[in-house]
Amino acid sequence: MTPTAPRAQGTVQIRGLRFGYPGREVLSGVDMDVEPGELVALVGLNGCGKSTLLRLSAGLLRPAAGRVLLDGDDMAGLSRRAAARRVALLHQSAPPVPGMTVRQLVRQGRYAARGPLGMLRDGDDAVCARAMADVDVTAWADRPVDSLSGGERQRVRLAMALAQDTRVLLLDEPTTYLDLRHQLEVLQTVARLRAERGLTVLMVLHDLGHAARFADRILALRDGRVAADGPPDEVVTPGLLAEVLGVAGRVGRDPVGGWPVCYPDHPLPAPQDLVK
Question: Which residues contact 104 (CB under 8 A, 6 or more apart)?
Answer without folding.
Answer: none
